[in-house]
Write a structure and sequence with these properties.
Elements: E1 3-8, H1 19-42, E2 45-52, H2 63-75, E3 79-83, H3 96-114, E4 119-125, H4 132-138, E5 147-152, H5 157-160, H6 167-177, E6 186-190, H7 193-203, E7 210-212, H8 229-238, E8 246-253, H9 260-266, E9 274-281, H10 288-299, E10 304-307, H11 313-318, E11 324-329, H12 339-346, E12 353-357, H13 360-365, E13 373-375, H14 380-391, H15 395-412, H16 415-427
Parallel strand pairs: 1-2, 1-4, 2-3, 4-5, 5-6, 6-7, 8-9, 8-11, 9-10, 11-12, 12-13
Helix pairs in contact: 1-16, 3-4, 9-10, 9-14, 12-15
InterPro entries: Glyco_trans_1 (IPR001296)
GO molecular function: glycosyltransferase activity
Domain Glycosyl transferase family: 238-400
């Protein structure tokens, strides 16, 4: 039996600048690791990776990276498909007209390519692809029986613009999610408990089908192989990070939702004890948030190294360095951050523990005081007290938290466990509960 996975995304193929890129890389790495095992169970599984057509303005476009991903996908028996969406040269991806174009233009591709397979699973990632099921239903009027669809959201308009959600984006999301009905062959991903609760609360999805697609990590990915101390020291020095100071690390997109502007003032009470390393990644050329961070660092006299571009090398090295005391995730909202998982794997022998905000997705991952620490970032005093608490941990207590965090990731969040669960749910339906959402 011939099988295919069509993965519709917008990051991680020719760029790698955010968490969506991380998810794309996770799928590629997972299929590489499990290819033989899955083929023995289901038959060959080809991967088709579908992305918007890039142009000169594409965020973080990297031709060498693109070439490597093409080679990996070819080795998985798959193909890369680039879908146009622009009707005007300056048209950005994050416009509803662009999403409409993507969903419209991908339909002939999916019909043609899926016809070659006995079973196809189409995974549509985030807002740009959310109404792909509706487009498929429009012509012809139903999705072919050989196709199942999984809608994977990692954010909503309620999260992106939490003070005043965009009405048009909300309408787009509502219509896309409502395509999931009993018997529709369209399911919504249950990525973590808090986000599934968010979707049900804001979109009233009383009849939707939720499928297991637990956010996870490839525990044995080579990126998590430990480095020797010489390599770690060399990386830190190359970025100007001092080796003779205790370190606090935070990294992510340079956007208000990430909460770095709340973290910096909370560092003031411990500024004489630590050096702060901030890695903030701007969207295109918008450095407004980074300029705010620099001003706050100056105002609060924080000793800091501010890296203003994407890097995996520096977090990897810092999370294996004995003087990195904590990694802070101060997000105002977080669907499910991979940072606590990555830190736990890198720091399994030495390195930091994690401090997160009380944002819903973070609370799904952290058992306070056991696998990490949490703080209410709306209170400078509480956040500052938590940072002080972690800095004052004994070596034995710090080590215990690190080890328990690592053990929980290995036992709970390994992608090599969760992807087979998802495929079994779609391709072995007798094992599927009548309404998965009743169990979540």
């Amino acid at each position: 039996m011939r099988n295919a996975i069509f993965y519709l995304t917008y990051n991680g193929l020719y760029n790698f600048t955010n968490g969506i890129g991380t998810q794309t890389q996770l799928l590629l790495g997972g299929l590489e690791a499990m290819q033989e095992m899955l083929a023995a169970q289901y038959g060959p599984i080809d991967l088709h990776l579908v992305c918007p057509q890039p142009d000169a303005q594409t965020w973080g476009y990297d031709q060498a990276f693109f070439d490597r991903q093409r080679q990996r996908i070819a080795a998985l028996g798959g193909q890369v498909h680039l879908v146009p969406y622009q009707t005007q040269p300056e048209q950005e991806l994050w416009e509803i007209r662009s999403w409409q174009a993507l969903c419209h233009h991908v339909v002939p591709l999916l019909h043609t390519q899926a016809a070659a397979y006995d079973r196809s699973l189409i995974i549509a990632v985030d807002q740009p692809w959310l109404q792909t099921p509706l487009a498929l239903m429009a012509n012809p009027p139903r999705i072919p029986s050989s196709i199942d669809m999984l809608l994977v959201l990692y954010t909503t308009a309620h999260i992106r613009n939490w003070t005043a959600p965009n009405a048009a984006e909300l309408a787009w999301e509502q219509a896309g999610l409502e395509a999931s009905q009993p018997g529709s062959q369209v399911s919504i991903a249950d990525v973590c408990p808090s986000f599934t609760a968010h979707l049900n609360h804001h979109f009233a999805l009383s009849t939707a089908q939720f499928a297991p697609y637990t956010s996870s990590i490839l525990v044995n990915d080579p990126i998590f192989a430990l480095q020797d101390e010489t390599a770690v020291r060399s990386t830190l020095q190359s970025y100007g990070v001092p080796l003779d100071a205790d370190l606090v690390l935070a990294f992510g997109r340079a956007q208000p939702i990430k909460g770095f502007d709340r973290l910096i003032p909370a560092l003031a009470p411990i500024r004489d004890r630590v050096h702060f390393v901030l890695i903030s990644v701007p969207y295109l050329d918008d450095d407004s948030e980074q300029r705010l961070y620099d001003r706050l660092l100056g105002d609060y006299r924080i000793q800091a190294t501010h890296i203003k571009h994407f890097t995996r090398d520096l977090p990897r090295a810092m999370c294996q360095w004995r003087r990195t005391k904590m990694v802070v995730v101060p997000s105002r909202y977080e669907t499910f951050s991979n940072i606590p998982l990555e830190v736990a794997l890198w720091a399994r022998e030495t390195g930091p523990v994690v401090v997160t905000s009380t944002a819903a997705g973070c609370m799904d991952q952290i058992e306070p005081g056991t696998t990490g620490f949490v703080a209410d970032i709306t209170s400078d005093q509480e956040l500052a007290r938590t940072l002080q608490q972690v800095l004052d941990l004994s070596e034995d207590a710090h080590t215990a938290v690190r080890r328990q965090a690592y053990q929980r990731v290995v036992e709970t969040y390994d992608f090599t466990h969760h992807l087979p669960v998802t495929l079994r749910w779609f391709w072995q339906p007798p094992s599927r509960p009548s309404r998965y959402r009743d169990e979540i």
